[in-house]
Specification:
This protein has 5 helices and 6 strands. The chain is of the alpha+beta class. Strand 5 and strand 6 form a beta hairpin. The longest helix is centred in the N-terminal third of the chain and has 25 residues. The termini are far apart.
Length: 179
């Protein structure tokens, strides 16, 4: 009998939690502030501009960090990261399995993956700087077209991590980081 009452009590608590979550989710001023990202199947059928518009509100103005995935004449796609340095970088690299427990990071930096991908429109003339590493590394200005066609190749040794600045909903600049 006591066991049955506990089970009934747990079920009642679960129902109340579900109702509470539903009430919280339906409250508000009637306007949904959340960005609705279309399913992958729908995004694959969209033009780059439509994909960018679908994801536009997900990035506020300011500087962000991400791995450059694709770039074309009008859009750029990043996989967002958080660049960490020092002990925080070592700890994050170990947590994500990129570093053995007794290993060390070359360069003392790590780009922790957030597993979020965003596609944003490019400004008309974005400022783009890549790292060109031939014995030493130096920043070299380039264009989105040169990156898109492969004329300019980021020097990030597989990382290709950029700081990108969003202004008025468009990527205004990209600067490759040397990790």
């Amino acid at each position: 009998m006591v066991m049955n009452l506990r089970i009934v009590g747990l079920i009642a608590v679960g129902i109340l939690l579900v109702i509470g979550v539903a009430v919280v989710l339906t409250q508000g001023d009637g306007e949904d502030d959340r960005v609705t990202v279309p399913p992958v199947e729908e995004r694959e059928q969209m033009t780059p501009e439509e994909r960018a518009a679908a994801l536009l509100d997900s990035m506020p103005d300011g500087e962000h960090q991400g791995r450059l995935l694709t770039i074309d004449a009008s859009t750029v796609t990043f996989r967002l990261v958080e660049v960490l340095r020092g002990d925080a970088a070592v700890e994050a690299a170990r947590e994500q399995g990129a570093l053995a427990p007794d290993g060390s990071l070359p360069g003392d930096a790590y780009a922790r993956d957030t597993f979020e991908t965003v596609t944003l429109p490019l400004a008309d003339e974005p400022a783009i700087t890549i790292q060109v590493c031939t014995p030493g590394c130096q920043e070299v200005p380039t264009t989105g077209e040169a990156l898109a066609t492969g004329e300019a190749v980021p020097g990030g040794q597989g990382e290709n991590v950029f700081v990108f600045r969003v202004s008025q909903g468009k990527v205004a600049s990209l600067t490759e980081l040397q990790l």
